[in-house]
Amino acid sequence: MLDFPRDFLWGSATASYQVEGATHEGGRSESIWDTFPRRVGATYAGENADVSCDQYHRYKEDVKILADLGFKSYRFSLAWPRILPQGEGAVNPEGIAYYRNLCAELHKYGIQACATLYHWDLPQCIEDKTHGWASRTIVDLFRNYAELCFKELGDCVDQWFTINEPQCVSYVSYLAGVHAPGVKGGLELGLKVAHHVNLAHGAAVKSYRETGLKAPIGPVLNISTPRPATSKPEDVEAAEYARRFEAEVFLYPLIGKGYPDLSFFGLKSPAEAGDLDLIAQKIDFVGINYYFEHAVAADPTGERRYQTAPFWQERTDMGWPIVPTGLGRQLSWVHEVSGGLPIYITENGFARPDVVEPDGRVHDRERIDYLQKHLKVCSDLIKKGINLKGYFIWSLLDNFEWAQGFTKRFGIIHVDYFNQKRTPKDSAYFFRDLIAGYGDF
């Protein structure tokens, strides 16, 4: 039985670069994700999101789909280069108008407008001038951008999210170099960028509190809290090391706990005087993006503090293990260490190679099974007193999956990328019935 409170917030999520298209329209400048696919081997077959789902022109159709399915909220992101084409300075009125129109369309159907300030599309001009998130100057640039968004959109946004997945902005982009801007800088640079992201979050929240706006605001974290592969002390210790580097670095400073001890990596706290106070601004909730949990073990060679252990679970099309109980362990940990802050699952979803069948439908039974298992965990957690307030399915639409291009489909709405036809999948109707109160499937 999937039993949720009447005020539980049901939503769906997207990101500007992944769905909007119109990358050279409406006064928008290029972002680091516009230029990254031009690098040989950066994305699958060099694919980019110049058109993608074309939501910039089709947002009314997509909002109507949300309304027809009964969703109560839509989490979208604001494109920094659409709002401030030069990264700072003069605002682009066409960009502001687009997001105000989107919010108005959502409100017409009684759907909350939930805006993410940053979902990875940094203006390329900032990267060119300052090296982007690798430079501390990004903190003031982001603060100014956030203040403009609050001023221009504060009267029509119902919930604010600061920065999506700091671990990807830092480690994936500047340590591993898999995402734009594709810098392979090692552990020290990865941690430095993580600190800049934390500072930018804190600066934005501090500015927000000074506006007097009342909509809730908080972060969106994709923390990793792996389980130890065995009960051996060395594996338990390995899991602790992993949690510090992949979770505590991003959560602890935000809730006033400072940085964890990273000396086992040969790293020290990146904070300067006053930094931790700035980061630890009062937040109204913690957003959690969860897709899987993995196991870690001690590295027998001693070269690393931990290593990913083999897993036996079924995989999604991304190659990720399906571990619903891991969601329960992670949310319970967040609840405990944060002192019971409200939690929203801001992303959770399943990639599979969906196709429209001859009957005109998309029968994504595996996705529904994945969702039922994870939502059962959510329902049980609420009954146990975990302060879980809402759930946003990733994603509303099939879209551009970053370095994977268009090869991975996460949407509950199938998108034909040649003609932009939207086809609700069976999982969309699953959500329609769940939101309507029929959780006894």
Your description of this structure?
This protein has one domain: Alpha-Beta Barrel (TIM Barrel). It has helices spanning 16-19, 32-35, 55-69, 80-83, 93-108, 124-130, 138-153, 166-175, 186-211, 233-251, 275-279, 324-337, 365-383, 426-435; strands spanning 9-13, 73-77, 112-118, 159-164, 217-221, 227-228, 286-289, 295-297, 307-308, 343-347, 388-394, 413-415, 422-424. The chain is built from 14 helices and 13 strands. It is globular, with a radius of gyration of 21 Å. The longest helix is centred in the middle third of the chain and has 26 residues, at 186-211. With 441 residues, the chain is an alpha/beta fold. The strands form 3 sheets. The chain has an 8-stranded parallel β-barrel with strand order 1-2-3-4-5-7-10-11, surrounded by 5 helices. It has a 3-stranded mixed beta sheet with strand order 6-8-9, with helices on one face. Strands 12-13 form a two-stranded antiparallel sheet. Helix content is 38%, strand content 13%. The model has no long low-confidence stretch (mean pLDDT 97).
What characteristics describe this protein?
alpha/beta, 14 helices, 441 residues, 8-stranded parallel beta barrel, 38% helix, 3-stranded mixed sheet, 13 strands
- What is the fold-level CATH name, i.e. the topology? TIM Barrel
CATH superfamily: Glycosidases
At CATH's second level, what is the architecture? Alpha-Beta Barrel
**In angstroms, what is the radius of gyration?**
21 Å
Cα distance spanning the termini: 7 Å
Structural class: alpha/beta
Integer count of domains: 1
Mean pLDDT: 97
Query: Strand fraction band?
Result: 5-15%
Total DSSP E strands: 13
Question: What is the top-level CATH class?
Answer: Alpha Beta
Instruction: Give me the strand/helix succession.
Output: EHHHEHHEHHEHHEEHHEEEHEHEEEH
Question: How is the main sheet built?
Answer: 8 strands, parallel, barrel
Biggest sheet: strands side by side, in what order? Answer: 1-2-3-4-5-7-10-11
Task: Report the uncertain regions.
Answer: none
